[in-house]
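Weekend entry, working from home. Most of the wet-lab plans are on hold until the incubator is repaired, so I used the time to fold the two sequences that have been sitting in the queue since the last round of cloning. Logging both here for the record. First:
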Amino acid sequence: MAKELKDLTKRSDNYSQWYNDLVIKADLAEQSAVRGCMVIKPYGYAIWEMMQHQLDLMFKETGAHNAYFPLLIPKSFFSREAEHVKGFAKECAVVTHYRLKTSEDGNCVEVDPAARLDEELIIRPTSETIIWNTYKNWIHSWRDLPLMCNQWCNVMRWEMRTRPFLRTSEFLWQEGHTAHATREEAEAEAQKMLKVYATFAEQWMAVPVLQGVKSETERFAGALDTYTIEAMMQDGKALQSGTSHFLGQNFAKSFDVTYLNKDNKPEYVWATSWGVSTRLIGALIMTHSDDNGLVLPPKLAPIQVVIIPIYKGDEQLQAITNKLSPIIDQLRDLGITIKYDNADNKRPGFKFADYELKGVPVRLVMGGRDLMDNTIEVMRRDTLDKNTVSIECIVEHVKNLLNDIQKNIFDKARNYRDDHVYECDNYDEFKVRIRDGGFFLCHWDGTAETEAQIKEETQATIRCVPFAYEQTPGVDMVSGKPSTCRVIIARSY
């Protein structure tokens, strides 16, 4: 086994270090020279591109169109929506000057004090304010609605404690912003986009999620409702993997965005916003991967099949290549991404370990004996099982195997999640069991005071009021007050 794999921390020893090791050793990302920021390396970015491509198709099927809005937002825009600025004020990076100058000794550059901006600019932590200031010029009558824009971009939220993909000061994401004529239409849009995210997570990422609505304390700053998908990682912690917000008329009123209805009377529009980020790569890693490295779902793997010839001399290599070339063409015709690694600068054992580390779903190996026997060795990354398959059957076998791997890793993750969802009605019991992780279905009295107490005493938070479980009245385990619903409580990233 390659040294790189031997140096990968085991999950059971230190889950957090295992994650950090894997991000680096699998060539996904590395720390940047800029504090709190990361460099997404080509392999990590390729996974993001796969996600981006599929999500973009799904967004456009709903009627959304891509656009782009400025990175810099005038500070005064944030003052118009009180809850919004309150929610992001501590995370905002501020541009105060527009010019540098050479120092008097000529050895460095410094900020030119004469170049101070008349109004400071905020590097976008999210784009509601700049977008709604723009929508004011785009929306005039009911014929202009609904207006549905999405943008793929970077945002900045100044973080003190960072972790690659999960929490960084700068990250990549998409943010959708829609305007509607009625409350009902906007609420339906917010819920529809939540389902889009859930579908993507489960069918493409193979990550099971619970859909639900956030508590008032946990909802997005400036929203009336925040809908969320929550995924369980292998350590039992929750990861918020996508959110969709019903914004009501808050931003429309703040930026005076009205339309003339069919009766020619002015009304404020109704709004939503929704987004997912490169945090999804963190979810992918922590849901499926193991002590040998990444385990990627075939639908999002940049390389779905790697083929490695083992040969002695150029003549044997040519014979293996001739045998495999039509197979490679057939697999590519099926839309399967192939890498034929015949490079002679790395030993086969190193290649095996490296592609295993990077989570390539299927590995095919042909050596001299396989060439004579008209067979090929197949290994699936999810279970590490190996078998030998006839060349005549290999194309159909690989196609079916990729589908099976996709399903298997989803089923494995879902079973793990379901086995770690617990009903709990005793607070003392909860405080002990939460240390080991899991999702706890607990009655909640609906008060912020109870929510704050749980967070302070256990470091766990209310993740959502889940849609998947039948709700019945009960008693809050903390306060003893009546409760109308059970919520998911968990520690989280």
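Second, folded right after the first finished:
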Amino acid sequence: MAQFFLRSKREEGEAPLYTKIRRNGMQMYVCTGIKVDIREWNKAQRSFSAMQRYEQTEEGAKVHDLQMRVMKAVDTLYAEGKINTKEDKAIIEEAMNNIVTGGTEEIQQVKKIAEAKSRKYVVQFYEYFFAGISDGSISHGSNSEYSAGSVQVWKTFGRYLHEYCGGNVTFDDIDKPFADGFTQFLQKKDFMPNTINKNVTCFRKLCNLAAMEGYNKNAVSLKVWKDRTVKEDEKRAEIYLTEEEIDALYNLELTGENEIVRDIFVLGYFSCQRYSDYCRLREENFVTYDKGLGQITLIQKKTGRTVNVPIVDDRVYELCDKYNYDFPEISEQKMNLKIKAVAAILAESTPSFQEKYVTVLTAVEKRSEKTYTKLLKKKKSGSKFTENERKWFGKLSKLAEKRNGAPLFERNKHGEIIRPKYELITSHTARRSGATNLYKLDVLSDQEIRSITGHQSQKVFENYIRIGISEQAQRVGDKILAAKGAKKKKGNTKC
């Protein structure tokens, strides 16, 4: 028996039709390749008469015909003994694809073999997987679609995968030297450790997914990626804004897009959420309970966890009223650029925003510095630039001019990269600042703060809070002195 359904959570547009097939105690979910209008299909599911009306339409009649042919094809494949296990899922998928596209039996047989064989190749399986998460036909285990951010991560990984593997590497070829080579390949690109680790994680997940689908039977490929984490000897400075700095930012007179960016950032600070969450807050996210305390309630986009954030500052409502609970949409990339520009304005009157922090260059910045150094030498030697080199030299020279002709990036006496605080602010600084300042209040437990931020791991949370060594020592010292004072006071009490 076959049942047909949609896996997409969208309410309109087109989506592929899936079928659930049960045979001899075995159950599998397969994409038919048939695309239907989501709205019309959902209408048809309401009743038997609604489905009959749908099948009388041009699209409905076509879909019904294809459904019948799919069911017949599956029955035939089972009768011929070609389908025995879940590992034969690719054969069913290809049979359905050929039914939809009108392929002949001979072509169908050839393509079945070719398809089942091709997905054993790493790049081909990646293409199949990426297409699925892009159109929503492949989802997480919770049946939730991959977020736009996750799809982008996999897209970037695919670019490096193609470059490293080519199209002839199978999962059987993956061993320790192969994994070592991939890590070294990324390191040669001067990527940050976090970027390297993220791409290694994608490769590990790809191997696991292929194993679950039956295309990867190499047990070694599942083990070589474990504990393969590049140590972050160098790490970008992660700063936070104090309550005083947030106040100064909130009171800064701005107009236009700068004002909007500042307001969204401050809302992010009070909510302690990621940009993907605080940029989409709307009126329905704000609730008031019996005791009159307002809360921000939302489901985190990244984790799927529900968090409730108490509203303890009236400025949250001031911001919401200002925009009628409908904040303008701004991409995170633009947000990161604009909030730095806003912070630069504030730095003119706020000395703390001018403080220098030791940090590291991004991969792009490293390449820019190498290119500029190389072009400077070429210019001094009197050699002529190519047209492309001339453009790059002009662009990089403008950056150098901002520092009076000095190297592109400022360094301290130890040769370390240093940046003023205002250049290090990003959309994520809002969340980090909110959580850190809650921690500094010393009235909430770590678990209580985590219930607001959504951090599931205590270890991740501890690494997240931006308290300096000297500041932490001061906090510990204050607690010790307070405890000693209380003990002394108790000892002096007469009975």
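Plan for Monday: verify the second prediction. The first strand starts at residue 2 and ends at 6.
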